[in-house]
Structure formats: structure tokens, C-alpha cells
Amino acid sequence: MSHRRSLARQFCEDSSSEDEKLMMAAIVAEEEEARLDAPRHGGSQPGRQSLQRDFAERFQNLHKDYFAENPTFKARMFRNRYRMHRPLFLRIASAIEAHDSYFSLRRNSAGVPGLHPYQKLTSVFRILAYGIAADLTDEYCRLAKSTALENLRRFVRAVIEVFGGQYLRSPNAEDTARLLAIGEQRGFPVEGHAPEVNYTINGHNYNTGYYLADGIYPQWATFVKTIPNPKGEKNKNFSQFQEACRKDVERAFGVLQARFAIVRGPARYWDPETLGEVMTACIILHNMIIEDERGNRVDYRYDNMGELVTPSHREAATLTQFLQAQSDIRDKQVHCQRQVDLVEHLWQIRGLM
Q: What is the pTM of this model?
């Protein structure tokens, strides 16, 4: 009997109050729950059924379904269920296995092979992609619930450690050039290296970047807002372009949720640290898929590919300069003039289509 329970019982014996008895019952219930939740060690438990999961046989089924030369489920089904094409999956599997020996094929003391790396990773991707409970992967992948949870935790950490440096890095010259070229093609020009920019719209020169925003934002020089209830074809055309481009960002998280259902479902059994790692790993995988599937419809050519963009961190030397910089950011006249110029610019683009 625990010391805490002994003190509570002695206290209750000295009192006939129902409150003290209820307190004692609560302590007993709490300790019993902790006992049931505590990890168990020491081998097999008497009366506990041991499952023969036939790892090798199940791997043969998995291999035939997805990894054979002529698999049962072709490339499209692989892409639907793993959320990526098979070459990218194999690249990730190879890197993860090399990084963490937990994902390697191991044998028990009798020489019987255990879970194949593809079984472990298939379990992970089923949980990430469909947001299912861990024990639902047991039937096909043959991972017990506890193994599936440990498997996922180790996987997301490995993804962050192996690929995080590349796919969560600051944008490089290639990334910046691609985004600027896309923005120019869609009618919102910005040239140079952010945040120092210089460009001309409708005959007017500008030297600040801007964010596409909706109506709740102030009329600052750093925002290009949509036009509520636009009148006339030019204004309607501008609003259509602006809202379409702005929603690209809003859709980005929607695509992430659609691709990995685990990020939109209830947290269930995850602790905050694991939740953060799951989210980070999903973002990394999402970026890898985007890179892998990016089309080559436009032949972008970049200079100094791979060099990180160095943002400007100029500080105002004096209070007067600082106040002037803040005033420039909040310049309503620049905000309104740029919107007028973009309306005309986009209308001209439409005329060329």
C-alpha cells in the first residue's frame, strides 16, 4: 500500500465525513488507473495470447501489391495511397533507413526476419495520409499499436533530421527567381531581391514589395488589397486576379490538409512535442512532393542557383530616418496609386490574352 493511501486511510478512520471517504476512493481509483497505464516489462504475461503476425508473408503481399516490377496496384494507385510517386518514396525510405537502423530489416534470436522497412513506412503513410488510428495498420502491415506509434514518432524525427535542412531552409536564388517569374507572369510584377525591389507599373516607379491582402488590412504602401464590390470591367478584372493569387496562399494549407489528413483531425493520443514533429514532417514531405511533381511548362533560367538570398537588414541611423521609414510604409497615397496602376496593368495583360 502506498504511503499516500496509508495517510488517507488513517485520516478517514479518524473522521466519519462522506467527503473524506470520497477522497480515499478517488485516491484508490487514481492509483489503479496509473497502475494500468504503467508500462509492463518482464516477458509474456500468463494467459496473454501471442499473435503470429507472419511478417515475411505479409511483406510478400505488400511487395506484390506495390513494389513488384508489375504490381497489382499501378502508379496512380500508389500515388493516391502514399501521396507521392514510388521513386520519391524509395528515395525517402533509403535515406531514413540509412539514418536510423530502427527501420532496417532485423532478425530475432531464432533468425526469423522481422518487419521490412516498407511495412514500417507503409504503416506511417497510412496514418499520415488517412489520419487513422495506429492499430488499424495491423491487419495489412502487421504492426501492433505500440509498434506503429513508436514507428511514426521515429519516422517524423528522422524526416526532420535528414530532410529539414533542405526543405525547411530559407529561400535561395532559384526559389526566389521562380516565384518572381510566376508573379510577373500572373500580372503582379516585382523585380530584384526582396525586400529591396525596384519595378515599374503603368509608368510609375516603386521600390517596395507588397502583400496581397483582403479588406481588413489598412491602406498601407506594403499592401495591395482587393476592391470590394468592384464597379466596371477593369476593377472587376483586377479583383479577380488579386483574389485568385491571394488564395494561392490560403489553398496551400488546404492542400496540406487534403494530402495528410492527420493534420486536420483530432490530436487523439499525441503529446505536444510529437504533434509539432508530425506537422513539421508533413510540411517537409509536402515540399518534397511539390518539388518532385513540379511541371516544366515554363523554362525558367536562373543565375547563381542555390545561393541563399540575403535579406536587407538596414537600420535607420537616426530617429528621423526611422520615422520616415515608418511613414513610407503607411503611405496611403502610394497604396492607392499602386492599386490604380495595377488595375491598368492587368487590364492591358487581359487585352493581350
A: 0.57
Instruction: Please answer whether residues 300 and 181 qualify as being in contact, where contact means their C-beta atoms are separated by less than 8 angstroms.
Output: yes
Identify the three-state secondary structure at position 215: coil
Dist CA 114 CA 107 (whole Å) = 5
Collapse the DSSP code of 46 into the 3-class scheme (helix H, G, I; strand E, B; otherwise coil) and give the result: coil
Do the beta carbons of residue 129 and residue 83 sit within 8 Å? yes
Q: What is the DSSP string of 56-107?
A: HHHHHHHIIIIISSS-SS-HHHHHHHHSS-HHHHHHHHHHHHHH-GGGS--B
Q: Would you say 339 and 225 are in contact if contact means Cβ atoms under 8 Å apart?
A: yes
DSSP string, 102-170: GGS--B-TT--B---HHHHHHHHHHHHHH---GGGGHHHH---HHHHHHHHHHHHHHHHHHHHHHHSSP
Query: Which cell goes with 14?
Result: 479518524
Give per-residue pLDDT as tens, 37-74: 555 555 555 555 556 667 778 888 899 999 999 999 99
Q: Is the dihedral of CA 277, 97, 124, 167 positive or negative?
A: positive
Cα gap 108→328, rounded to integer Å? 69
- Hey, is 205 helix, strand or coil? strand
Please state, in angstroms and as integers, the Cα–Cα distance from residue 115 to each residue in 49, 60, 86, 108, 300, following that order: 20, 11, 20, 11, 44
In the numeric block, the cell 494467459 is attached to: 47
